[in-house]
Specification:
single chain, 3 domains, two-stranded parallel ribbon, 20 helices, mainly alpha, Fumarase C, Chain B, domain 1, binds arginine
């Protein structure tokens, strides 16, 4: 500090103010700072700094004694932050400078040597990748828990009939278990997308320094190994400026939220008293402050709403990147809030859904009643006629006439007598009632991927093995 060559300039208040003649205004300070949102990467920042310092010592760029000081200082800092006793300071702009400044206050010159051969540009890129890697691992566990919840509920309802819909019109019987398994598939693909994103992001930017690399004899492979990266970013300009991984993450999160939102829409519809297929546990619903009778499915509604916010973050990040020339620009600091909010929204949503799904109370009688009103076995009757030799188009026509007759009589297909049914085709025999029942219709779709209860149970087994 007494070294005349490092005497402070008039504006000396930050790590970079040496060349400035006046300090930034308070508004600009707040505008440019990121410490209040990037401090959540403090663990990754310390981890990255320790790996960098170990490499510097190994390469004899700093002394072993410097490394020892840095390690002990960082241990103190970690304990301070953990205990909520760390003084995060707006004057120090971001998580990196806050930690470095405290380190220097604790251990002196060794702290000042830490930034040798490094820039905040490659430092922040490293921190975000480490943070996102941890987050993806958490999300994968949550997606799996959500799948397990769906599978457990599907198992209980592997032969509970409900109407399958197309165009929101009753189409054909399916089982509730089969319906839930559709979401297990979606989540499988989601997990695959996050795994892809993780594999691509798992490369080390450090060593790129500001943008062009560094004049020090660094060992990037060593740092990569220390931090569990699969390799290094090949190009220094790309290393500091790439945020593809953040966009990929938000894209994968957007698809998870799309799936959650579709399920939410179904839960809301099913819970509407006009449909009444399910009830959700009280702890996921709220009442109305004016209408005493209400029980509203707030959680699925909010999840449906939050989906839009995650899409917005994806669009925001794409837009953030599209106009940036190489290499690092301060624009990149804007990557964090959308990324963090996407992760937070997704994590909370997945936690809640894994808890909510097993609490779905299925009202099987309402599902069965809807099936009786929707001519849900009409396709089965057409298939029956085809098996008796009628071309499918003719069978379709005959059954359509039968449905019209039911409509005027206000009854369902199995309510017609054999004589009445035979008016539409003489091929119909008394074995027809076997195919006109819901149970018969379900059991007949007996192939992998079909809704027959035995197939649903087999699909649950296969899905469990995949988990
Ligand atoms: N807080 C900055 C960010 O999040 C760190 C990198 C700053 N680099 C710079 N040259 N100003 O992007």
């Amino acid at each position: 500090m007494t070294d005349p060559q490092s005497s402070p300039s008039p504006a000396a208040h930050s790590a970079w103010s040496g060349r400035f003649s006046e300090p930034v205004s308070d508004l600009v300070k707040r505008y440019t700072a990121s410490v209040f949102f990037d401090q959540r990467m403090w663990r990754q920042d310390i981890r990255g700094s320790l790996a960098h310092a170990r490499m510097l010592a190994r390469q004899r760029i700093i002394a072993e004694s410097d490394l020892a000081e840095i390690e002990s200082g960082m241990a103190t800092i970690a304990a301070e932050i953990e205990a909520g006793k760390f003084n995060w300071n707006l004057d120090d702009e971001d998580v990196h400078l806050n930690i470095e400044k405290r380190l220097t206050a604790l251990v002196g010159d060794a702290g000042k040597r830490l930034h040798t051969g490094r820039s905040r540009n490659d430092q922040v890129a490293t921190d975000i990748r480490l943070w996102l890697r941890d987050t993806i691992d958490d999300i994968d566990r949550l997606l799996r828990a959500f799948q397990e919840a769906l599978l457990a509920t599907a198992e209980i309802h592997s032969d509970t009939p409900m109407p399958g819909f197309t165009h929101l019109q009753v189409a054909q019987p399916v089982t509730f278990g089969h319906h839930l398994l559709a979401y297990v598939e979606m989540l499988d693909r989601d997990r695959g997308r996050f795994a892809d994103c993780r594999a691509r992001l798992n490369r080390l930017p450090l060593g790129a320094a500001a943008l062009a690399g560094t004049t020090f004899p660094i060992d990037r492979e060593f740092v990569a190994r220390e931090l569990g990266f699969d390799g290094i970013c090949e190009n220094s300009l790309d290393a500091v400026s790439d945020r593809d991984f953040a966009i990929e993450f938000c894209a994968a999160a957007s698809l998870v939220m799309t799936h959650v939102s579709r399920l939410s829409e179904e839960l809301v519809l099913w819970m509407s008293p006009r449909i009444g297929f399910i009830d959700l546990a009280d702890r996921f619903c709220t009442g109305s402050s004016i209408m005493p009778q209400k029980k509203n499915p707030d959680v699925p509604e909010l999840a449906r709403g939050k989906t839009g916010r995650v899409f917005g973050h994806l669009m925001g990040l794409l837009t953030l990147m599209k106009g940036q020339p190489l290499a690092y620009n301060k624009d990149n600091q804007e990557d964090k809030e959308p990324l963090f909010d996407t992760a937070d929204t997704l994590v909370d949503t997945l936690r809640i859904f894994a808890d909510m799904v097993p609490g779905i109370r299925v009202k099987a009688e309402a599902m069965a009643a809807a099936l009786r009103q929707g001519y849900a076995t009409a396709t089965d009757l057409a298939d029956y006629l085809v098996k008796k030799g009628l071309p499918f188009r003719d069978a379709h026509e005959a059954v359509a006439r039968a449905v019209r007759a039911c409509e005027s009589k206000a009854c369902d297909l199995p309510d017609l007598t054999l004589a009445e049914l035979r008016e539409f085709s003489p091929l119909i025999g008394d074995d027809v009632y076997g195919v006109l029942t819901v149970a018969g219709s379900l059991a007949a779709r007996n192939h992998p991927g079909g809704t027959a209860p035995s197939q649903v149970r087999a699909a649950i087994e296969r899905a469990r093995k995949r988990l």
